[in-house]
Design goal:
Helices cover about 25% and strands about 25% of the residues. The protein has about 375 residues and is an alpha/beta fold. The chain has a six-stranded mixed beta sheet, with helices on one face. It has a four-stranded parallel beta sheet with strand order 13-12-11-17, covered by helices on one side. This is FAD/NAD(P)-binding domain-containing protein.
Length: about 375
Amino acid sequence: MTSIQKQNIVVVGGGISGITVAQGLSKKLDHSKYNLILIEPRSHHVWLPATARMVVTNDEKFAETAMFPFDRVFAKGKGVVKQDKVVSIKEGKEEVAGELELASGETLQYRVLVLATGSKWSGPVGLPDGEADLRQFVSQWREKFKAAEDIVIVGGGAVGVELSGEIRDEYPDKKVTIVHAQDNLLNDAYPTRYRNCVKAGVTARKTDLVLGEFVVEFPLSGSGELVFRSGKKLNAGLVVAAFGPKPNTDLIGRSLGPEALAETKLVKVEKTLQLPSHPVIFAVGDIIDWKEQKQAAKASGHAPVVVANIVNLLAGRPVRKEYEGYPEIIMITNGRNGGSAYLPFLWGIILGNFIMMFVKSRNLFTWVIRGKMGY
């Protein structure tokens, strides 16, 4: 009796979107026919919402609550993690849908491919891949924050606001300033009354704001003079980049052609989250060209669509499940004991310090990711 050659279902990227898809597939696939493979260059999943605290706090144990190995990520262990990096995607013909070339030199065929390559961040949340490099990076940023007396954070989105709160907790006497190109913190995806609430929370902790100013020159050494488009200048003992991330899609554009990407470098997708003209390739997470804020919470909206559609595709059934968007909920910490949230329901609900302290600020949802990673 001839054994059936199993086909590979491959997920590229071990961030929250990638692992949510991989976990869903591990429960639904027929593992007698398919191998489930997750490819990720890091040895550990790093919980991004905890990064701002991890690079500031002097609590050496905190990093261990925000980084988890992938050894328990699949349901009942039904899947394989390859610690590697994809360097090219080649589409195939007939029975082989395509193949991936890995940095290690290995070539891996796939029947279905899910792209979850995430974002490229700058500054203290732009973590390197290698575990040793990552731990050194965290340690170096902690030393930078400790040494500087005058810290300027460039970028007043969620990351910049949360960084300011962590610095205030750890170093209440340091001078902290947030510079933001817009006239209020965050962006216009959220109503003005909520943005005002966030601003009030930040200024209440004696953090200065420079709003409506765009930085055109950064000091190369990480400290010195910032120059604004208006011509104004600002000196800083430490300049911290906290502006929005860029989509990590260079590989996709090189391999599938520039037409796979929008002008924003985000991946074009159908409502089924398939790439147009590439029916066996799906994309999820921060990289998709969808009018929504890029947040970890979106994984719980993207993943069920992709999992259901892959199961149907493999069974020869129509791929019909469509992504309809996800509520723009935001929760922003302001240190361990405060923060605010906006829920776009009814009249638009705003939650303040007391509720946020218990919901997110104390633990940053690390207990959620801990359970998700099997720990």
